[in-house]
Amino acid sequence: MEEYIRQFSEKAGALLRNLPTVEIAKAMNILQAAFERDGRIYVIGNGGSLALATHWVADFNKTVFSHNLSDQQRRFQAIRLPTTEEELTAWANDVGYDMVFAGPLQNYIQECDVLIAISSSGNSESIIRAVDLARSHQVPVIGISGFDGGRLNALADAKVLVATPKGEYELVEGVHAVILHLFTKYFKDYFGYIQQAREHMAREQSTPARAAGRAAAN
Amino acid sequence: MRISFVGGGTDLPDFYSKYPGRVISTSIDKFIFIAINHAPFTNHVAARYSVSEEVPHPSQLKHSRIREALLGLGIESNIEIASFAPIPARSGLGSSSSFSVALLKGLHAYIGKRLDKKTVAELACRLEIELLKEPIGKQDQYAAAFGGFNVLQFNADGLVDVEPVLLDYKKRMDFEAHLLLFFLGTTRDAASVLTEQKANTARNFESLKRMSDSVPVFRDAILHSDFRSAGQMLHDGWMMKKQLASLVSNPAIDALYDAALSRGAWGGKILGAGAGGCLLMLAPVEKRAAVLEGLKKAAVAGGFEGAGEIPVTFVQTGAEVLFNSSGL
After folding, report:
1. A200 in any annotated domain
2. C-alpha neighbours within 13 Å on the C-beta side of residue B196
3. Residue B324 and residue A210: Cβ atoms within 8 Å?
């Protein structure tokens, strides 16, 4: 039993040690750009990936600003699609399962938005339909995939691939959860840093960047 | 708009057709906004910027970029275009190409076409360089279309590679804290400097080559938060640039620059094609206030009216359609 546990954790550890850092950095720059222009971030996934999407939305919309939630007027606008089970089942039942994400996405999408698509295989037709819609609107796509990345990895602007043998859902989804938490942690630290800088700024009448520079220097 | 650090001038075809041109730049939180309105009950074309034009046909517009963009797309009437900018034109922050990129992105959206970053950058280059024969390079159009902190490489085949410089928020804000952007108040015409610079490209080939090669070195200095070296490189680049064209600097600008150095700045440069616009300085955080004070005094002494600091932060976003009422 312990040997089995060790083998699993070895594999998970190897994946974590080899995270696609450049692509994750690109993804975070895409999220930063969406924040700057007050765009929305749509998140989609099937099964466990939908659970990851929902969990991430809760963290990202609230926890990122937990240090000064009441002062923060501009916040992230992350939205899990579809937003209700009723919409999901209506699209699946009336139109076809392939449209459960692209259908609701069409209601919201604007050019200044971002799409995060989570799919272990990277080949779910429902996911690809939404990615195609986003691309036709020039909306950047953060693709979070596993196995060989599939079509999602090929189409995405930020190609966040957790490469494993086919079928390793447990490892892939586990590492996806870590990456999504990394997104949250990065922006939480970032806005916390600005908050600290504001306190210096109040004393020194400067910009947040300069005050942060001084705070870092001290 | 953008701040360009190192490599300006290597984006001219006389250079990059022989050796890869490189520029490192970042977009900043200063934006050109363009509003385009379909006006079905007017039989004119309106262009509203620092002046207001209303003409029966776009070919009669004085604003060359709007005129050529409309003619190129076959839009002949019933349209109003207005632009808004936070900083006067010709400030050296790439605003004229930001304007072209935003205009082309917006006009294409107006006729139901969504342009990707690369296409809009190429179309803006075509408009400004091929159609209007402006003697400018390609860095500003790409900086405006893509947004973010990038190394741009200009290849002999005309293609441009955009390689992001991946700075985390701490490094980015630390870098911002060491930067000082000082608006000189006087405006300049990039074309006259660049025409001379372009004519001198052959003579200055070795200098430009060194500038292009110093781009990855500057990038690495920033990635390692070595702002002193970066400041020294700006200084070396500025000294080289002053040799490229006689109009790049003048005694009044040199006096400002020297005032900044004497107050402890590491180095800097004039942004854009030179001869006015903005002075960009890198300085230790603790010397920043003194450098600014020195610049303000020198600006008054040099007769720069309306000069002053422009606070900036770097941004990731490039040209975007923020609102499209047609729903196309």
Report:
1. no
2. 16
3. no
Rounded to an integer, what distance in angstroms lies between the CA atom of residue B294 and that of residue B83? 35
Stretch 128-167 of chain B: residues touching chain A, C-beta under 8 Å: 147-148, 164, 166
* Chain A contact for B189 (CB, 8 A cutoff): no
Q: What is the pLDDT of residues A64-119, one digit of tens each?
A: 888 776 777 888 999 999 999 999 999 999 999 999 999 999 999 999 999 999 99
Contact B111, B104 (CB under 8 A): no
Decide if A62 is inside a domain.
yes
Which domain covers residue A20, as residue numbers?
A: 2-182
Q: With H, G, I as helix, E, B as strand and everything else as coil, classify residue A28.
A: helix
Whether residue A113 is contained in a domain is answered as yes
* Count of alpha carbons within 13 angstroms of residue A128, beta-carbon side: 13
Q: Is B315 helix (H, G, I), strand (E, B) or coil?
A: strand
Of A33, A137, A190, the CB nearest to B317: A33
- pLDDT tens digits along B104-140: 999 999 999 999 999 999 999 999 999 999 989 999 9
Both tokens assigned to A149: 């990345």
Nearest by CB: A37 against B169, B322, B324: B322
Domain ranges of chain B: 33-161, 168-314
- In B, which residues are within 8 Å of A138 by CB distance? 114-116
Nearest to A210 among B148, B285, B315 (CB): B285
Residue A14's CATH number:
3.40.50.10490
**Cβ separation A217–B29 shorter than 8 A:** no
Q: In angstroms, what separates the C-alpha of B299 from chain A's closest C-alpha?
A: 21
Smallest Cβ–Cβ distance between A25 and the set B166, B177, B288 belongs to B166
What is the chain B residue with the closest CA to A35?
Answer: B317
Interface with chain B: mutation pick from A74, A207, A214, A218, highest number of B CBs within 10 Å:
A207
Rounded Cα gap, residues B147 and B117, in angstroms:
9
pLDDT digits (tens, 9 = 90+) for B41-91: 988 999 999 999 999 999 999 999 999 999 999 999 999 999 999 988 778
Please indicate, yes or no, if residue A95 is contained in any of the structural domains: yes
Collect all residues with Cβ–Cβ distance below 8 Å to B107 and sequence separation of at least 6: B36, B69, B70, B73, B75
B168-314 CATH, one of 3.30.70.890, 3.40.50.150, 3.90.1170.20, 3.30.2090.10: 3.30.70.890
Which residue of chain A comes nearest to B147, CA vs CA? A33
Domain B33-161 has CATH 3.30.230.120: yes
Number of domain units in chain A: 1
